[in-house]
Automatic annotation (TrEMBL):
InterPro entries: CheY-like_superfamily, NreC/VraR/RcsB-like_REC, Sig_transdc_resp-reg_C-effctor, Sig_transdc_resp-reg_receiver, Tscrpt_reg_LuxR_C, WalR-like
Native organism: Stenotrophomonas aracearum
Family matches, as SUPFAM superfamilies: C-terminal effector domain of the bipartite response regulators, CheY-like
Tree of life domain: Bacteria
Biological classification of the source: Bacteria, Pseudomonadati, Pseudomonadota, Gammaproteobacteria, Lysobacterales
Protein name: Response regulator transcription factor
CDD domains: LuxR_C_like, REC_NarL-like
Keywords: DNA-binding, Phosphoprotein
Domain Response regulatory: 4-120
Modified sites of kind 4-aspartylphosphate: 55
Tagged with keyword DNA-binding: yes
Amino acid sequence: MTIRILTVDDHPLIRQGIASMLEVETDMAVVGEASDANEGLEQFRRLLPDVALVDLQMPGVGGIEMTRRLRAEFPSARVVILTTYRGDANAREALAAGACGYLLKSSLRGELIDAVRRVAQGKRCLSAEISEEIAQHLGEEALTARELSILSALAQGWENKRIANTLGISAETVKSHLARIFEKIGARNRTEAIHIALRRGLVRLEE
């Protein structure tokens, strides 16, 4: 049977590249493409593909939220997130949202083709680098929702006073939270904390 594939990515060249890699396979056919999440949802409803390849970071609704909405409407939908972001937090969030796979766009052609076939069979598939990232942080204490919001504000360049005013807490409480955040993620200062947070996908800057 032919595996019917939908690609969702805001970059036309990426969509074309994926199609050119997959179309040469006799058991695969790219039946549709979309440039954003809303169009992707519409295309999925219309085409009901076997596998959807979805970009993580898109303007507006991102790939993880699209996956969440898609799985709510189609519980058996099979989604593979394709991304340039190696962060373990991104991958864990994508899997929790219902994605069946998480692959880097730098993956070799063979890895992508194998992943599509595995996911079409109901299996899961992660890039080796992503699996290693997840393994490195297993057992670590997770950041709380408040800590994540403070870390996100930090990544946007906010000073403690602005964070405190926005969250309705004191500047001293913000400092206490930051100390705890640094301890949890292994950062020595604000700059290092931002670097780690972005690399791991603990926070994402809006495009």
